[in-house]
Amino acid sequence: MNVQSQNRRTGRGRPATPGRKEQIFDAALTLFAERGFHGTSIPDLAAAAGVAPASLYRHVESKEQLVNEVYRRAKALLATALFSAVSTDPATPLREQFHQLWWALVGFARREPRAFAFLELHHHGDYLDAESRAVELRVLAPIAQVVERGRAAGLLKREPAPALIVTVWGAFVGMVRAARAGYFILDDDMGRAVEHTTWDAIQGRSP
Questions:
Q1: Which residues form the domain of 40?
Q2: Alpha-carbon distance 104 to 98, whole Å?
Q3: Could you count the other beta carbons within 10 Å of the beta carbon of residue 68?
Q4: For a pLDDT cut of 90, what percent of the chain falls above it?
Q5: Which of 13, 46, 81, 170 has a CA-to-CA distance to 1 between 20 and 30 Å?
């Protein structure tokens, strides 16, 4: 069978439809967030997107490529939230920068619950490629900048920067997970309470 006849049979030779591609990515975000990478099959993805499996392959080469594309898209949403909210003006007080950072994270979790769930589930996936892992480091830059500035000024504990970043990120993720599990409602009062507790955990010099 020649390539042209095979393309006619599989549908891979037809031009991809932009709107259909968005359907596939949207369905993939939902299924990967709910079932994980290994629990989601190509037929599952195609059915959720309303396309035939052969049509799906006109847009992505494999499930691995698809999950990485979805991962980078979700990280881009988070990056936009952080970089647009956190001031880089050196005159901005550190506490205000932390406040901006915290509520950018909370806002992302509220606006993009599927993206948040997806990122948490796939954060350490062995199927993530080098490009996806590089995106992860870039997205953490606003948090790292606030932490490094605070350590240099003596306003935060002198523990290693990664330890402080983990403290902030862990508090945020734990808060959102607990709210999703029904332990409390993530309203502004709860968001402020966890913000203040997290700030207290990282501010000041270590004993």
A1: 18-60
A2: 10
A3: 22
A4: 76
A5: 46
pLDDT value, residue 7: 38
- Kindly state whether residues 116 and 82 are assigned to the same domain: yes
Number of separate domains in the chain: 2
Residue among 22, 14, 19, 24 nearest 58 (CA): 14
pLDDT value at 38 more than 60: yes
Residues 6+ apart with CB under 8 A from 107: 81, 85
**Closest C-alpha among 168, 153, 38 to residue 105:** 168
The amino acid at residue 143 is I
For the segment 160-204, what is each residue's pLDDT rounded down to a tens digit?
999 999 999 999 999 999 999 999 999 999 999 999 999 999 998
33 near 121, Cβ under 8 Å?
Answer: yes
Across the range 6-35, mean pLDDT stands at 71
Place of tokens 């203040």: 196
Q: Which residues contact 8 (CB under 8 A, 6 or more apart)?
A: none
Residues in the chain: 207
Indicate whether 17 pLDDT > 60. Answer: no
CA pair distance 71, 31, nearest whole angstrom: 13
46 falls within a domain = yes
**Residue 32 forms part of a structural domain:** yes
pTM of the complete model: 0.85
- DSSP labels for 137-172? HHHTHHHHHHHHHHHHTT-B--S-HHHHHHHHHHHH
Mean pLDDT value across residues 29-51: 94
Look at residue 194 and give its three-state secondary structure: helix
